[in-house]
Amino acid sequence: MFKNKKILVLGVANKKSIAWGIAESLSQQGAELCFTYVNEAIEKRVRPLAEELGSTIVLPCDVSSDEELDNLFSELESQWGTIDGVVHSVAYADKADLSKRFSETSRSGFTLALDISAYSLIAVAGRAQKLMPNGGSIITMTYLGSQRAVKNYNVMGVAKAALESSVKYLASDLGEQGIRVNAISAGPIKTLAASGIPEFKALLNNFAESSPLKRNITQEDVAGTAVYYLSDLSSGVTGETTYVDAGFNIVGIG
Asked: Which of the following is catalytic: 37, 92, 143, 229?
């Protein structure tokens, strides 16, 4: 399905990352992949993973740095010329701002969460469009905390709400170029990022008990929807947020 397709993947930290599950599925379908890392510690984890999938392009990228973003896309243009898709699976908030009351969120913490978790998609999409002359697909990861007040999610919920709104505006902005922008709202998964959320184990248990499918979701669940969005199967779909959460979002009390 993805033969001769080139996909940029941002957000792999280890094998538990949602972005890794997506990358594996894309590779199985023949995609060429580029991975990024934010620092040396992550690079040591990402390079071996990239090698597993036959990827030789592993580049530094701190999404809070315009210079590093410029360098990333300049290098992609040099090595690939064009790209067909982007997986944006990047989010961050100060752990302290997740454990305190939302009304006590610091100004710096709010700015940080919105910059990394929401603005980064805009910054990436703005550069990616130049390498998508024939159109393409951009996907990002969100969570139900954008629509409901979820305990201990706090400022990240606000950041995800901004992210989902950005998806709509980017879809409208880039649609004439044949570029689709969509979001996947995944249920809770044990990832490196999730480990920073207080009482996350309790959240998982409650999710499985309350969701219509009576289970937690997996990387494979999310990857299936990601493959759909990145492929021509979703050629007429843009600006959407799809819930991959075992139906939890439809439940009135959970």
From this structure: 143
